[in-house]
């Protein structure tokens, strides 16, 4: 006996519930993998996002096939409500489930609208599929990067990283009662570190508990770069033909340099592109707060000293650590490139 729409909706709900349980179990298992937990969780999420898409697409196709003929399969004059169909990741319109007593002329008039709706649904599904594919590619890149970082950490002995960190701590951090607070190693490290410092100073700027707390900091930075003082930043941005010709057109952080300043700022706003001194200076303006950067290469560097209480000169650290954002710059923290951490009182 053929499956009715009600039976199909019930089966779809059961499959979704079972899938969610399986996904949660896989993520829970990934979280128990110690040092590799973060990578394992991302891999599990990546896998189950794809499986969920496949399941929803299958549900939609099954519902379309069952309801597409316009026949009443429930034995009632009225088809299930549209809300019930949506719960099973498909939509059943009143046009697709026309009661048997409706005049044939009315059915014929409705046919073009149904075709138009089907075409619109196809376009919508293609757009969603393209968006999901791009998201999955980004996530896969993050997973691959974290795997490389884990491999580095597992094979590294006494390294340039340790020597650099020890020099910074001995010369500049411990004498001031400060210590490095590690920040996740990705293209957002500078912005994550600034967000953590905003919390330390109780600046009501961003919700640091959010996984993407750096998004707000990126937005502040991009708004300043494109703001009224744009002319102070644009000449120093790594973009345009002139910069490419002088600098080779590519570096380890930004890949191919953006062709325009607008494109450069868009990357700051909405991608995982690294940030540097240009972005830090913009953030000083946006947050109205000085930023002090520690490194093993020399004395602490203060930017945005004009925003310090009482004012101060740019350059060597001259701002109160209790009123400044404190970061550390590492050239050898990871072989993959430069890195920023947060600095906090011991």
From TrEMBL:
Basic and acidic residues bias spans: 141-151
Domain of life from the UniProt record: Eukaryota
Basic residues: bias regions: 125-137
Biased composition, class Polar residues, residue ranges: 90-117
CDD domains, sorted: OTU_OTUD6-like (cd22748)
Sequence ranges assigned to domain OTU in this UniProt record: 178-346
Gene3D superfamilies linked to this entry: 3.90.70.80
Stretch list, region Disordered: 62-162
Stretches that traverse the bilayer: none
Protein's name according to its UniProt entry: OTU domain-containing protein
Organism of this sequence: Discostella pseudostelligera
Lineage start: Eukaryota, Sar, Stramenopiles, Ochrophyta, Bacillariophyta
